[in-house]
From TrEMBL:
Reaction(s) catalysed by this chain's protein: Hydrolysis of alkylated DNA, releasing 3-methyladenine
Binding-site list for Zn(2+): C6, H19, H179, C183
Entry protein name: DNA-3-methyladenine glycosylase I
Species the sequence originates in: Paenibacillus antibioticophila
Taxon lineage: Bacteria, Bacillati, Bacillota, Bacilli, Bacillales
Keyword ATP-binding: no
Amino acid sequence: MNTVRCAWVNSDPLYIAYHDEEWGKPVRDDRKLFELLILEGMQAGLSWYTILKKREHFREAFDQFDPHMIAQYGPEKVEELMQNSGIIRNRLKIQSVITNARIYLEIMEDPESGSFSEYLWSFTGGEPVINNWTHIKEVPASTPVSDAMSKALKKKGMKFVGSTILYAFMQASGMVNDHTVDCLCRQEAAATGQK
């Protein structure tokens, strides 16, 4: 029997493992969500496969995505990152990481938000949105929910948080389950009692 995965997965074991073990599984950890948000922003105009291959370099370059450390970065650190061939050397994207780390800390300190995770998950009512796509062409690039999240984060001052970037983030973090119905991961979810 052939193993069926979502049509976007290539044959690289790294990509297969990402699809099978991470993509679409609900993430509630604040720091992991911050990392995913930053990586999705870095992906803008590129492929996720490119970012995935560089993920360990990103973690090393950005202090394991520690928002407290990143928020302290100054011009010298930006220049150092611009010389790092292991990451995407785009000045606007690098500066956005610093800006977004500062906004992350503001959200974490805001009693109304609860936490970064609670704030982001509030856009889906705290539960994953389960879709039933039969073909990759049916999967949208954005939704009214990602539009609302984008508008809210931009209002707070975050960068590289357009609706399409955020929908990809929601898919990756499991806020949305967009595994197609024939995908083995969708079958496993069904077998364990998830919708």
